[in-house]
Amino acid sequence: MSSTTPSIQFFVGVFEELNNVSLRRERRTGKRIVLLTFNQLNALEGFKSFTKQSLNALLLSDEEGEISVTPSSTKFIFGGDEGDELKQVKCEFEIEQDDHWERFMRFMHRYAEANGMEYGEK
User: Fold this and answer.
1) pTM
2) What angle do CA 70, 38, 63 make, to 5 degrees?
3) 103: helix, coil or strand?
């Protein structure tokens, strides 16, 4: 295995910075729900999303390899005086299988460590 800095991409070669992650479990089905929050998207700056190939998924990469996730929802939240300033992007997906959950958590621990994030409860 090689030592790779954990990264998140929507578009090939455009690395995003995660600002928050929320982990929940649906009581009725037991499905785990992940909500990733980004305060900005590098893919939107300088029209990079028009010049790079879309992954049609969220790509999480680390020293173990790549995880390709298809979001169940992506919400763009705008604000500012004109209401046209991007404030946040919220990306949600579900994880059903235990081994996928464990792999995702290993990625998140590596990403958090590399980016100065830490776990906290509200």
Assistant:
1) 0.86
2) 60
3) helix
